[in-house]
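During the no-cost extension, the postdoctoral fellow (Dr. R.K.) reprocessed legacy sequence entries with the updated structure-token encoder. One reprocessed record is reproduced below for audit purposes.
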Amino acid sequence: MIRCLGLLFAWLASAAGALAALPACRPDWKVELVATAPDIRHPSVVCVAPDGRVFVAEDPMDIRAPANAMEGRIVCFHPGGRRTVFAEKLHAVFGMQYLEGKLYLLHNPKFSVFTDAGDLAGRRLDLIESTHPNPWALGWNDHVPANFRLAIY
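Re-encoded structure tokens follow.
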């Protein structure tokens, strides 16, 4: 289901604002349009919390802003249709995982964790300050690490 959500957001973003026919799915599933541009732009990763909230990262890096601009954000879609901006002023968000009441973000060059405060992010802690010694050396975010998985063992 999460992969389908990610693909749907990416598909909707690629429609360039034009409302195309929704993709077909299995009879026991349904496809529902949740947001279109300008409400969501440049989706890069999707993650779901146990309570049904869907977090969608937006990353305008190299599209409409310089690579080092902190213009990324996380939009939270709540059950029932409400939408809030969970976090903003982020680097290129290419990894996200919800675990035990916290949202972990790989927003290069940082790896951060946000306490879940419901509608928006609570305390932010940068766990890794830089995943690359000089990420914008050429004027663009080179070799962007993408995705991650956390586990407890």
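Residues 2-14+33-128 form a domain with the Neuraminidase fold (CATH 2.120.10.30). The chain has one domain: 2-14+33-128. The remaining legacy entries will be reprocessed before the final report is submitted.
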